[in-house]
Each structure stands twice: as structure tokens, then as C-alpha cells.
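My hope is that you will study the record closing this message with an eye to the fold:
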Amino acid sequence: MKVAVLAPVAWRTPPRHYGPWEQVASNIAEGLIQSGVDVTLFATGDSITAGKLLSVCHVGYEEDRSQDAKVLECLHISNLMEKASDFDIIHNNFDFLPLTYTHLIKTPVITTIHGFSSRAIIPVYKKYNSTGYYVSISNADRSPELNYLATVYNGLNTSDFEFNGKPDDYLLYFGRIHPDKGAAEAITIAKKSGRQLLIAGIIQDGNYFKEKVEPQLNSQIEYIGPAGPERRNELLGKASALLHPINFSEPFGMSVAEAMLCGTPVIAFNKGSMPELICDEKTGFLVNNVDEAVGAVKRLDLISRLECFNRAAEKFSSEKMVDDYLQLYKQILE
């Protein structure tokens, strides 16, 4: 079987620090290769893969802002589509734009919908409802207007994470600094709990950081910048809990699964996919507001860190994700 995996070109695949779609595309590609599949990854030229790599740019447009994002995306997607006949199946991890080629090629395209940037993009998905093969990354992140082949949870390389049964005393916020992700709420939870908070992530909203985060920084509340794979494992593993007080219906939440793979429980606002990722009072706590989160911090001793690891390894491994996708590929090709 020859499979083309289409990744975005905002960041490297896999990313150096931030880039969840690129990370999942990488895990799919490398997992397929380990399963004996002939894979060509379409990504930035500096991407890393054990398969074939085809690119139209050396680095992503988020890492070199002199490039025009839309131009790069058009060149990137067309580069794959003009080679579509070379593949048995195309796995699209690049949102809705590649769908506009699907009636012009014969190779089937399976699309993992990593989330909806807005409802405005749904008409494109609807146009290709009868011929597209759509996969959601959680049951919570489904549009009632679309037809889905399956839900496949994002899978992680469990060997990249080390279980830590004896954490330090700090709480961790791990994610982009943006109102949606709740950095300000995490700070309030830590202050009310009297606990140290480490904040790691790219600053996606500069004004939000300056107004809501930066004025709160001190010896108790520390911003340590973006954290790549090297620091991620240590930060997540040593934390007594990950704070995930999101203010939107998050489609998945990579850091939630990553934390649990280190044995670290997660305290999250009960929105979006969180009930699918977190087993309440087993691998963390699902709460509705800051005060409930503060109460959950006091109950962390009730959580078995080993159970956090075991459940996450069972549900969110790259092996399980790849097996699920291979079954879907066979279903489509038959």
C-alpha cells in the first residue's frame, strides 16, 4: 500500500515546540512506516521522517514570516494532488482546502478533521460529504451536518514519555498563551491553592499575555517560555498536576494525553473532548470553574499516577491510532 500523508506547512513535521497537527501527521506517518506501509510525507523541507519527504519550502511560514502562508499552502497542496495517481490513498491532515481537489483525482482522500476554526468552513466539508471520508478526533468535535467514517483519537509515541511516580510540588500550565486555553484562570487556581505554577507555551496573543499573565509573574507564578520535546517530558512528569482550564470546546488536547502518559493527573474545565480524555476522579478531575479546580488540587492524593499512565497508554498510543487508520484505509479501498 502506498500512502501519501499531507501535513500542514506552518511548522516542521514533527514540530520543534508547537504544532499539534504536524505532530499527529508525523505520528501517523512514522507509525505507518513501522507497520510496513510505503509512506510519502508532504511537509516542510526540514521535516524528519523515515519515509520519503516531498516539499515546496524549506521551513514553515510560522518560522519564516517572509513567506506568504496562502501561496505556500496552494503550492504545497497542489504538489501532492498533481502526484495523486502515485498513491493508493491520501491522508489529509490539512483541513478543508485539499478537499477542493478531490473531484479532480481518482485516489481516495481520508481527512482527519483536527477542529473547526469557525463554522464558516463547514460548507466546504458539506460539499464533499458524499465522497469524502471524514474522521473526527473526538466524538465531541463533530458537526451534525457532516458524515463521519469514524472517530480516531490522536495517538502519541508512548516511548517519548517517562512515568514519574514521585512528582514535585508545582502545578503546570502547558499550552499556547491565549484566552481560549485559560492561562489567566490557571494563575488564579494556583494562587488560591497556594501552589507554585509553571507556565510553558508560545505566546499566541501578545495583548492577553501583557494584560493577564505578565503582571502576575513572580517567584510563585513563573513563565518559562515554549517547551520542546526535550523539556516537555521533564516538565509534565514532575508536575503534581496539569491545569487545563479551557474556555472553548477543545477538539482533543494533546497536552492532556501527554501529561497522563507521564503519570500526571489533569484538572480541566469540563468542556469539549475533556470527558473523553479524562476519567473523572481516576485520571484527574473535570470541574466547572476556578473554585472547583482549587478543590480538586486538594484532592490530588486520591489519584493513582500509575492509573493515569495505564489508561492513557491504552487509549492514546500511536500504535492504536495507526491500527485504527489502517482498518479505515482497508475499508475505503475495498
User: Anything to note?
Assistant: The chain is about 35% helix and 15% strand. The CA atoms of residues 40 and 52 lie 5 Å apart.
